[in-house]
Amino acid sequence: MRIGIGYDIHRFRAGGTLRLGGIEVPDAPQLDGHSDGDGLIHAIIDALLGAAGEGDIGQHFPPGDPSTAGIDSRELLTRVVRLVVSRGYRVHNVDATVVAERPRLGAHLAAMRDSLARCLGVPASSVNVKATTNERLDALGSGEALAAMAVALLEEEVP
Ligand code: MG
After folding, report:
1. Which pLDDT belongs to residue 101?
2. For the chain, which residues score pLDDT lower than 50?
3. How far apart are CA 119 and CA 139, in angstroms?
4. Cα(82)–Cα(105) distance, integer angstroms
5. How many A from CA of 45 to the centre of ligand 1?
6. For residues 121 and 21, what is the distance between their CA atoms, to the nearest angstrom?
7. Model pLDDT for residues 64-92, shown as the tens digit of each residue
8. Which end of the chain has the least Cβ crowding within 10 Å, N or C?
9. Which of 41, 12, 10 is nearest to 29 (CA)?
């Protein structure tokens, strides 16, 4: 078994639609970023890369690379899962926490879980997504940004 941790934070844009955990969350602006800004997926990617000993998301998908501009982060996650599997690992489970003052995410967590599980190639029961506020403290608490943290557990594929 190998464990990895991931963290990401993105500022909200003035418009657009929030993409988080691979789904669209209506009535919230998009997150700023080179890709679609899906910080939850980015945290999970870093957790997977960390567990596999494969560096971080910036090494695999350098910001500024025109081929990943505006890309759906599910595509990045799928590529990382493929890499992890090619290194002889299988995803055991992923747990994540989103920290955001807005929007209220409770009604969307199940859809995020299903979407993430599809990319990860695991049953939904192997993925958990939680949401909390920052108690109105700092940039997260003022609604300026959204952060996500994740842990991933990989198991070695039995040859
Ligand atoms: Mg990011």
Report:
1. 97
2. none
3. 30
4. 29
5. 10
6. 15
7. 899 999 999 999 999 999 999 999 999 99
8. C
9. 12
